[in-house]
Amino acid sequence: MSTVLPSAVPVKIVSGYKPGGLDATILEANQPVVLKGFGDDWPIVQAGKQSGQQAFRYLQKFCVSAPIATNYAEPSSKGRIFYNDDMSGFNFVAKRQPLAEFLEQLLANVDNPEPPTLYIPSTDVDQWFPGLALENNAGLDHLRPIKLLWAGNRSRIAAHYDSPNNIACCVAGRRRFTLFPPEQVVNLYPGPMEFAPGGQEISLIDFAEPDLQRFPKFEQAMAAAQVAELEPGDALFLPGMWWHHVEGLDAINVLYTHWWREAPAYSGRSANALLLAILSLRNLPEDQRKAWRNLFDYYVFDREESDVQCIPENVRGMLRLPMSELDARKLRAELIKKLNI
Questions:
Q1: Contact of 173 with 253, CB cutoff 8 Å
Q2: CB count, 10 Å around CB of 103?
Q3: How far is Cα 222 from Cα 203, in angstroms, rounded to an integer?
Q4: Strand pairing of 155-161 and 235-238?
């Protein structure tokens, strides 16, 4: 007997927010939110509402002359950007080509019922499309976001997480996001950490045809899932660390994302701490791992200002909340020295 998976609940939808008008209720939320019509006034959205082809024509005004990174997968991929059958490589070929050539391939396959998968992965807007952000500004400059463009035909991007917060703006075609809170990682079966299609570990589950014998806990993940379907002009606020499966639903799709971190840059990459913990702690006996978990809880996850009030301010060092840039630099230097021993 086949199992009927729980249906994802719709992401909360709000209206009336425009670029420059996002406040803390959105930017500091711990749940995803759809911003209906957020980018309606952008020229790229106005082009995208005419057609995906018009959106690309608009992009061509800004694209540098150098070829951009693209991915090609055979029709058998059915839009899924993933590993090959034995996970020794990927099911797509990465190459560089002029944007105009990529558009020609898209247009040639618009009416193809079984097209190859044509995909532009994360592309830095300021580097490859200079000037685009000025005409299509999200009003987030105070957060110094990394602005990225994603485009292609019908595609399925495996569930993964990104540590920064994100305002993802659909500017052409339609996009569907299936979202999971961070604690669902145990039910999403992530693949290899050091070898993944986009560099970030991904869920191994094919959402179109989930194998519940191989991935039985996926049913629990879907019970906690939320879903958002975006039209041109709509944006999604996606909190950092939320897992998201992304589908391009039309023959031509363009997504414009804005990533930012809430921690200061001198704090370093959080993922580095995870890698070091895997190296240093995972192979310890269970009782020692539990002891280290208590220390992590005390020093990191459950930290409160009152815990260090018994220590004179001038000697708190790395225990100071928040940690200063000087203390962060001292700690990084000490860590590098210890790692080199």
A1: yes
A2: 20
A3: 13
A4: unpaired
Q: 37 — phi, psi (to 5°)? A: 70, 20
**CB-count burial class (<10 Å; 0-12, 13-18, 19+) for 205:** buried
For Cα atoms 137, 142, 147, give the angle at the middle one, nearest 5 degrees: 50
Q: How far apart are the first and last CA of the chain?
A: 57
Q: How far apart are CA 51 and CA 38, in angstroms?
A: 19
Question: CA–CA separation, 333 vs 330, rounded Å?
Answer: 5
Using a 10 angstrom Cβ sphere, with 0-12 exposed, 13-18 middle and 19 or more buried, the burial of residue 252 is buried
Residue 1: what pLDDT? 39
Low-confidence residues of the chain, pLDDT below 50? 1
Query: How high is the pLDDT of residue 2?
Result: 53
Token readout for 35 is 């911003």
Output Rg (C-alpha) for the chain, integer angstroms.
22
Query: Residue 208 has which token pair?
Result: 């179109």
